[in-house]
Amino acid sequence: MMAYSEDDIALAAEYALGTLDADERAQVETMMAVDTEFTAVVHAWEYRLGVLNQMVGSVEPRPIVWENIQRAIGHSGPQGPLTLPEAAPPPPVAPVVAEQGSVADIWPADNSNVIQLSGRVKRWRNVASFATAAAAALIAMLAMQVYSPDLLPNALRPKLRTQVVEIKTPALPAPPSAQYVAILQGAGGSPAFILTVDAATKNFTVRKVGADAEAGKSFELWLISDRLPQPRSLGVIGGGEFTARSVLSSYDAGTINAATYAVTLEQAGGSPDGKPRLPPVFTGKLIETVPAAPPR
User: Where are the alpha helices (DSSP H) in 18-92?
Assistant: First the structure.
């Protein structure tokens, strides 16, 4: 691509702005007719400046503005005929005779560079002024879009964006379930074991209170119900203070709550065939100690 001077580029920009006089416009159009690359430079400026110009709408001043201007310059009333004062005759000018060998004779004055520089500054000043005004209008429009979008035309208002926000609420704790307790005691009336059953999970815990198994023997817990043909083993009670099991899950709530719970003394490790070998030594029935929470 051909390299162009700053003066040529400024001419192209000012041509796009429409601020050249008739002679300068004719000069640019002649250059465009013979140089396609210079035409591309002009079109590039028209594209850049045209975008800014489209973003700045025209504003018609109110009639009061023109009235204030006329009043400020003293023309608010009816205009009279324009008359110019008579000019005084110019004073006589003495002829100037250049001495032989003067500086003017050796280096004649050449103001072409000064004229070119002045024109270049003027062109770039015009381009810069237009760009500054367009940028200021753009900033003002963006500020109005953020703070006062209702004052803008519909075409310039920002589009509404809908954002869906999902808020997860913490899970509510489960309501407390009903709790049942049975005191397993012998004929003497003193408690030997305390059986606790959770109605929701059907897990049970046996706590040893006052019973000690003989050497080589084990305590085994049984569920006895008229709904079942024979007692069902719930497992051997361990030697520790607490024994927990989850074998009641296969029984319905009615059977669990109405059954009798018994403890027999079996051989070490419990009954070998799933049937009690000796009569029960401790028995008891469940009673509700903690009621179930009402539904929410």
Answer: 22-34, 36-55, 63-72
